[in-house]
Amino acid sequence: MARIPGEGLAKGLAVTMRHMLHKSETQQYPEVHPDLPARSRGVIALVEENCTVCMLCARECPDWCIYIDSHKETLPAPEGGRPRARNVLDRFAIDFSLCMYCGICIEVCPFDALFWSPEFEYAEYDIRDLLHEKDRLGEWAATVPPPPAHEVGAEPPKELSAGSRPAPARRTAPPAPVKGPAEGASAAQESAQDTAAQDTAAQDTAAQDTVQEAVGKAPQDTARGPAGPAEPAKGAESRPRREPPRAMRDIRSIRPPGSLPKNAGSSQQKKDGPEGER
């Protein structure tokens, strides 16, 4: 295709003329600050009063750019109590030359001591000046915007619902009824009946133990051999049967494995152990 000479120049001039007729959208910074979007991450602000030196933010920081120093302080004991120790914050610094603005430190803080601030005007000529201490971080806490309002129909925050919940009522034991003379006599009779019932149950238990011991000591049936089970006594089928005690063997008469009997050369020798006694 044949190209018209000067076609590209005409297109460029057309774009220039089109933008010349529109109003410019230049913002006069720094006199006019830009409108930043909600939840913009400018800088991390610190509320020193809420910090308990739990070190969670410093441990969870992937860049290790948070530096915390503290010391312990003993509070005076109240009346009838004992002294209590607490951590006092000495230094809280963030090196923004290493920070990657991930927001993990703000999320893991359990006491709401760290917040996002929309401030972004903290550039320095030297990178070593980007290490800001707690005084500078505390100044940025005043620029933290308030939290946005909840959506219509959303559940209220847990902090507000827990604070407005009424305290549970304490349970008290009901008063003991006052017993009259007739009731006291009936209670004494009931206690006497309970004692008699307990004595009867103890006698029945002793009788059952005696029967079980007698069944266990009964002789074995010779027709079935020594290994046969003994006949249970009449009326004791449903009761547990105890095995008779086994005869103890003399340990000294047992020959250890691999040893030879005495007088191994004699043909008429007496065997050791229980087999030779038979």
Describe the structure.
The protein has 278 residues and is α+β, with helices and mostly antiparallel strands. 28% of the residues lie in helices and 12% in strands. It has a 3-stranded antiparallel beta sheet. It has a two-stranded antiparallel ribbon with strand order 1-4. A hairpin with an 8-residue loop joins strand 2 and strand 3 (84-95). The longest helix has 36 residues, at 181-216. The protein is elongated and about 130 Å long. The model is unreliable at 181-185, 218-228 and 264-270 (pLDDT under 50).
Short description:
The chain is an alpha+beta fold and 278 residues long.
Topology:
Blueprint: H1 7-20, E1 43-46, H2 56-60, E2 66-75, E3 84-95, H3 104-108, E4 114-117, E5 131-132, H4 134-140, H5 158-163, H6 181-216, H7 274-277
Antiparallel strand pairs: 1-4, 2-3, 3-5
Structural class: alpha+beta
End-to-end Cα distance, whole Å, is 128 Å
Low-confidence stretches: 181-185, 218-228, 264-270
How many strands?
A: 5
Key traits:
278 residues, 3-stranded antiparallel sheet, single chain, elongated, two-stranded antiparallel sheet
